[in-house]
User: Which sequence fits this backbone?
């Protein structure tokens, strides 16, 4: 019988043993012995795995898959947190928010995107291949040392994920502060109109109509052409400025919900809260060239 030893913290070793016990049970692998010993002074635990010599390749495959799963599912979040703590300085409350953003970027949260989960699978497979190469020529692995010395590319990728999560947090923070500022402006400015109909056209521009469905004219709109040529002000920026200036009591959007209008609609919804409604179809929608 051959032996293979895995060294890590007691918590992680317990997780590995439970995973391997389940794996070997479902694989009907007989004559497999798993035992744990512990060194309290070093705060380490040892998982000794005994297996038949003729089943060495398959056995080590099971071990590699279990360790790869442990790294991705349990150790990765701790590694990411340590990278964040070493490179950034934020308040206690901000650190917690950023860590949740890091977990979302690593695919450890339900709100993670499909691409994030695919990238998580890619990282696991890369770790698995490194593990298979390593344990094929040894009978022991110290997981912490393996990560530090054999998974340098993985650690670089993880650092990049942390950087992206921090950037996302800062962008959202800036956005929320900007929205809060515009909300305050709408509270201090006097409402100039009751209703504003915002009609987007396929060509990319918009028009504003009052409650009588008459075009609202503004000095900002008259300057729009020159500013568009100079690329100083986008149509979305112009629309936000107009609405904050007018402070309408109700805003009705006539839009088919394409990606471009979705962004500015979200911003307007955040600024004006419950004052935004969607049109389900009217002659203004038809006049756009296609119905809502």
Assistant:
């Amino acid at each position: 019988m051959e032996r293979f030893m895995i060294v890590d913290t007691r918590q992680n070793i317990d997780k590995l043993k439970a995973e391997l016990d389940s794996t070997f049970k479902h694989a009907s692998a007989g004559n497999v012995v798993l035992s744990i010993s512990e060194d309290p002074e070093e705060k380490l635990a040892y998982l000794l795995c005994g297996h038949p010599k003729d089943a060495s390749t398959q056995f080590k495959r099971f071990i590699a898959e279990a360790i790869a799963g442990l790294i991705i599912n349990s150790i990765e979040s701790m590694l990411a947190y340590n990278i964040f703590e070493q490179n950034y300085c934020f308040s206690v409350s901000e650190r917690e928010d950023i860590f949740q953003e890091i977990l979302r970027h690593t695919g450890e949260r339900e709100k993670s995107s499909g691409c994030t989960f695919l990238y998580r699978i890619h990282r696991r497979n890369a770790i698995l291949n490194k593990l298979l190469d390593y344990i094929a020529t040894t009978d022991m692995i110290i997981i912490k040392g393996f990560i530090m010395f054999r998974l340098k590319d993985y650690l670089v990728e993880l650092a990049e994920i942390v950087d992206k999560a921090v950037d996302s947090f800062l962008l959202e923070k800036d956005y929320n502060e900007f929205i809060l500022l515009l909300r305050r402006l709408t509270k201090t400015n006097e409402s100039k109109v009751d209703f504003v109909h915002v009609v987007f056209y396929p060509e990319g521009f918009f028009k504003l109509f009052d409650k009588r469905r008459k075009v609202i004219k503004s000095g900002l709109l008259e300057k729009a052409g020159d500013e568009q040529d100079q690329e100083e002000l986008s149509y979305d920026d112009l629309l936000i400025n107009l609405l904050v200036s007018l402070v309408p009591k109700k805003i009705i959007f006539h839009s088919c919900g394409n990606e471009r209008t979705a962004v500015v609609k979200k911003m307007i919804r955040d600024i004006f809260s419950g004052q935004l409604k969607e049109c389900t179809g009217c002659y203004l929608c038809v006049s756009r060239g296609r119905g809502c």
Remarks:
- Residues 224-230 have pLDDT under 50 and may be disordered.
